[in-house]
Write a structure and sequence with these properties.
The chain is α+β, with helices and mostly antiparallel strands and 403 residues long. 52% of the residues lie in helices and 21% in strands. The protein folds into two domains: 191 residues, no CATH class; 168 residues, no CATH class. The protein is elongated and about 100 Å long.
């Protein structure tokens, strides 16, 4: 028989057994639906996280003091002298509360450092208005997007305007909220969350503002900028050798590599879980086709009696499973795409001092769709192979006598 005739006959048989075929197709669809939903969603969020880390400067290392250690200017110079280090910048960081013109309160961060270093660290920062204040402009700063605009997008601040923030300051051993006035020297474009500081809710100040404006005497940390990403690991090791447990060292390049490794392991685990759903589908297809073959034993005998070869019977049964697998795969992929977009419509939040809100688009790639469809078809063929082989081996005389 021609392939077109076999396909037409397989479709007519499936139409006669609509309910059973529909249930089998649903069973097949579960595998690709789970695979596309889970892997597409996770891969989408993973891409965003890795890209965020990549934008934080692959040349940058952050050194933070331990609980029993204070970073001083001497430490800054020691870090500067390490081979491969291009520049260093100590920083002060303090939380504050800002009341916007619309009356809403916003938790912000005051970040005093060499502002040029910040733009090296977060290379995609852009100004909406204004620019970098002079290093001695202690009361001037760059404000993030959420300070300058309301949640509805209304502009609340302009360059040259003074803003006030409430800053917790230790006075005689007591924490007192002090009001500080800062002149807006620049306004940043909306950036989104970052993994060290959220630029949208930060006021960047010159370094000396940490002492004169914020009343801080101890550095919160030191930014270290190396000449080449290739020497990051060596510089990190040297800092750890010098300071041991006195400081914590964060290299964004290493964090990005670690996250990528975790993502690869997670992808493998999710793929294995998806394959388990396909394994269940194999059992369902096999049971369905065994039942179908048993019910059609006399029909198979008639086909053989009128000239069908064992090979033609085998191909016919496999064609039925192949059609159901292709339909189930297509339905599953469609449901998986819809499920992935539904899951990704909700933001993913990483809690902390700077809450990170991640919005992602599912990574529905042609490769993922091809893998899901390929597995669905493979499952169908494997599930139908044994019943098809058994049907093809039934002698016509035995089949015709079957009740």
């Amino acid at each position: 028989m021609r392939p077109a005739d076999i396909l037409r006959l397989a479709l007519s048989i499936l139409r006669e057994r609509r309910l059973r075929a529909a249930l089998t197709i649903i069973g097949i669809a579960i595998g690709p639906a789970a695979m596309v939903t889970i892997m597409g969603t996770v891969e989408g969020y993973s891409n965003v996280i890795v890209n965020k880390l990549s934008t934080l400067g692959q040349n940058t290392i952050v050194v933070l003091p331990g609980s029993d250690y204070t970073l001083t200017d001497h430490d800054v110079e020691r870090l500067r002298m390490i081979r491969g280090v291009e520049d260093v910048a100590p920083f002060y960081m303090k939380p504050a509360v800002f009341r916007r013109r619309d009356g809403s309160l916003l938790e912000v961060t005051l970040y005093a450092t060499d502002i040029d270093m910040v733009f090296k660290l977060i290379g995609t920062l852009r100004f909406l208005e204004g620019g970098v204040p002079p290093s001695r402009a202690y009361t001037s700063g760059i404000v993030g997007y959420k300070l300058a605009f309301s949640d509805e997008g209304e502009k609340l601040l302009r360059v040259g305007q003074a803003v006030t923030v409430r800053v917790p300051v230790v006075v005689n051993g007591r924490v007192v909220n002090k009001v500080r006035s800062i002149r807006v020297y620049g306004i940043l474009e909306e950036y989104g969350s970052a993994f060290t500081v959220n630029p949208d809710t930060t006021i960047f100040l010159p370094l000396e503002a940490g002492r004169f404006l914020l009343g801080m005497s101890r550095y919160s940390g030191v930014l270290v900028y190396v000449e080449d990403p290739a020497v990051v690991d060596r510089v990190v090791d040297e800092i750890k050798d010098r300071y041991h447990d006195l400081v914590r060292v964060i290299a964004f390049q290493q964090v990005a590599r670690a996250v990528s490794s975790v993502i690869r392991a997670l992808d493998f685990l999710l793929f294995a879980l998806s394959v388990s759903a396909f394994a269940v589908a194999v059992t369902g297809i096999m049971a369905t086709m065994f039942t179908s073959v048993m019910e059609r034993t006399r029909e198979i005998g008639v086909l053989k009696a009128v000239g069908f070869s064992s090979r033609s019977v085998l191909v016919l049964i496999l064609a039925e499973t192949l059609v159901m697998s292709m339909i189930g795969g297509a339905v599953g992929v469609g449901l998986g795409v819809a499920g992935a977009y539904a899951l990704s419509s909700r933001s993913f939040r990483i809690a902390g001092r700077h809450e990170i809100v991640i919005m992602a688009t599912p990574a529905i790639t042609p490769q993922l769709i091809a893998e899901a469809m390929g597995l669905a078809i493979f499952v169908g063929v494997i599930g139908g192979l044994i019943p098809a082989y058994m049907a093809s081996r039934v002698p016509p005389v035995v089949a015709l006598r079957y009740e």
